Amino acid sequence: MRILSPSKSLFLTITTIAFAHNVNAQDQNLTLNQDPKFEQLLNEKRKINTSISTNDTYRIQIFSGKSDEAKKTLSDFKREYSTVDGTIIFSTPNYKVIVGNFKTRIEAERNLTEIRKKYKSVFLLKPGR
Protein backbone atom coordinates (compact mmCIF):
# COMPACT_ATOMS: atom_id res chain seq x y z
CA MET A 1 0.00 0.00 0.00
CA ARG A 2 1.26 3.43 -0.93
CA ILE A 3 1.16 6.36 1.50
CA LEU A 4 0.32 9.75 -0.02
CA SER A 5 2.42 12.81 0.66
CA PRO A 6 0.80 15.48 2.88
CA SER A 7 0.21 17.85 -0.07
CA LYS A 8 -1.52 15.16 -2.17
CA SER A 9 -3.57 14.08 0.84
CA LEU A 10 -4.69 17.68 1.49
CA PHE A 11 -5.57 18.17 -2.20
CA LEU A 12 -7.61 14.94 -2.24
CA THR A 13 -9.47 15.92 0.96
CA ILE A 14 -10.36 19.41 -0.34
CA THR A 15 -11.52 17.99 -3.69
CA THR A 16 -13.74 15.39 -1.96
CA ILE A 17 -15.30 18.05 0.30
CA ALA A 18 -15.97 20.34 -2.69
CA PHE A 19 -17.76 17.60 -4.63
CA ALA A 20 -19.69 16.40 -1.59
CA HIS A 21 -20.88 19.94 -0.85
CA ASN A 22 -22.63 20.19 -4.25
CA VAL A 23 -24.44 16.84 -4.01
CA ASN A 24 -28.22 17.19 -3.49
CA ALA A 25 -29.60 13.67 -3.36
CA GLN A 26 -33.40 13.25 -3.44
CA ASP A 27 -34.18 16.91 -3.04
CA GLN A 28 -37.41 16.90 -5.11
CA ASN A 29 -41.03 17.45 -4.08
CA LEU A 30 -43.66 14.83 -4.82
CA THR A 31 -47.26 15.73 -5.55
CA LEU A 32 -49.86 12.99 -5.15
CA ASN A 33 -53.23 13.37 -6.85
CA GLN A 34 -55.79 10.91 -5.55
CA ASP A 35 -59.47 10.48 -6.21
CA PRO A 36 -61.55 11.86 -3.30
CA LYS A 37 -63.67 8.71 -3.37
CA PHE A 38 -60.59 6.73 -2.33
CA GLU A 39 -60.56 8.34 1.12
CA GLN A 40 -64.32 7.74 1.45
CA LEU A 41 -63.86 4.07 0.50
CA LEU A 42 -61.00 3.72 2.97
CA ASN A 43 -63.16 5.15 5.78
CA GLU A 44 -65.98 2.72 4.94
CA LYS A 45 -63.51 -0.18 5.02
CA ARG A 46 -62.28 0.95 8.44
CA LYS A 47 -65.87 1.00 9.76
CA ILE A 48 -66.54 -2.50 8.44
CA ASN A 49 -63.30 -3.90 9.87
CA THR A 50 -64.07 -2.58 13.34
CA SER A 51 -67.57 -4.07 13.25
CA ILE A 52 -66.32 -7.54 12.30
CA SER A 53 -65.31 -9.61 15.29
CA THR A 54 -64.54 -13.19 14.34
CA ASN A 55 -64.23 -14.44 17.92
CA ASP A 56 -67.80 -13.48 18.83
CA THR A 57 -69.53 -15.70 16.30
CA TYR A 58 -70.51 -19.35 16.15
CA ARG A 59 -69.12 -21.43 13.31
CA ILE A 60 -69.61 -24.97 12.03
CA GLN A 61 -66.86 -27.42 11.13
CA ILE A 62 -67.97 -29.73 8.33
CA PHE A 63 -64.74 -31.53 7.44
CA SER A 64 -61.29 -32.41 8.74
CA GLY A 65 -58.78 -34.29 6.60
CA LYS A 66 -56.56 -34.02 3.53
CA SER A 67 -56.13 -30.84 1.48
CA ASP A 68 -57.69 -32.11 -1.76
CA GLU A 69 -60.75 -33.47 0.03
CA ALA A 70 -61.11 -30.22 1.99
CA LYS A 71 -61.06 -28.15 -1.22
CA LYS A 72 -63.66 -30.43 -2.80
CA THR A 73 -65.86 -30.32 0.30
CA LEU A 74 -65.71 -26.51 0.43
CA SER A 75 -66.54 -26.11 -3.27
CA ASP A 76 -69.47 -28.55 -2.93
CA PHE A 77 -70.69 -26.69 0.15
CA LYS A 78 -70.49 -23.27 -1.56
CA ARG A 79 -72.43 -24.63 -4.51
CA GLU A 80 -75.27 -25.84 -2.29
CA TYR A 81 -75.23 -23.12 0.40
CA SER A 82 -74.25 -19.98 -1.50
CA THR A 83 -75.36 -17.60 1.28
CA VAL A 84 -73.09 -19.11 3.96
CA ASP A 85 -69.39 -18.18 4.05
CA GLY A 86 -66.77 -20.90 4.28
CA THR A 87 -63.02 -21.27 4.58
CA ILE A 88 -60.26 -23.85 4.93
CA ILE A 89 -57.99 -23.69 7.96
CA PHE A 90 -54.82 -25.76 8.35
CA SER A 91 -54.44 -27.24 11.81
CA THR A 92 -51.64 -29.78 11.94
CA PRO A 93 -51.98 -32.41 10.47
CA ASN A 94 -55.44 -31.76 8.99
CA TYR A 95 -57.21 -29.23 6.83
CA LYS A 96 -60.53 -28.15 8.35
CA VAL A 97 -63.49 -26.71 6.50
CA ILE A 98 -65.21 -24.13 8.70
CA VAL A 99 -68.45 -22.48 7.59
CA GLY A 100 -70.77 -19.78 8.83
CA ASN A 101 -70.47 -16.66 10.89
CA PHE A 102 -73.52 -16.88 13.14
CA LYS A 103 -74.14 -14.24 15.80
CA THR A 104 -76.40 -16.37 18.00
CA ARG A 105 -76.31 -19.99 19.06
CA ILE A 106 -79.92 -20.48 17.93
CA GLU A 107 -79.08 -19.33 14.40
CA ALA A 108 -76.02 -21.58 14.36
CA GLU A 109 -77.97 -24.62 15.57
CA ARG A 110 -80.68 -24.08 12.93
CA ASN A 111 -78.03 -24.09 10.23
CA LEU A 112 -76.27 -27.03 11.87
CA THR A 113 -79.36 -29.24 11.59
CA GLU A 114 -79.78 -28.24 7.94
CA ILE A 115 -76.09 -28.84 7.10
CA ARG A 116 -76.06 -32.15 9.03
CA LYS A 117 -78.48 -33.60 6.44
CA LYS A 118 -75.71 -33.56 3.83
CA TYR A 119 -72.49 -33.59 5.92
CA LYS A 120 -72.48 -36.22 8.66
CA SER A 121 -69.49 -35.28 10.84
CA VAL A 122 -70.37 -31.66 11.60
CA PHE A 123 -70.21 -29.87 14.91
CA LEU A 124 -70.62 -26.40 16.33
CA LEU A 125 -67.60 -24.27 17.23
CA LYS A 126 -68.21 -21.85 20.08
CA PRO A 127 -66.95 -18.25 19.98
CA GLY A 128 -63.33 -17.72 20.90
CA ARG A 129 -62.07 -21.03 19.51
TrEMBL record:
The keyword Signal applies. Residues 1-25 form the signal peptide. The keyword Glycoprotein does not apply. Keywords: Signal. InterPro entries: SPOR-like_dom, SPOR-like_sf. Residues 56-124 form the SPOR domain. It comes from the Bacteria. Pfam families: SPOR. This is SPOR domain-containing protein. It comes from Flavobacterium artemisiae.
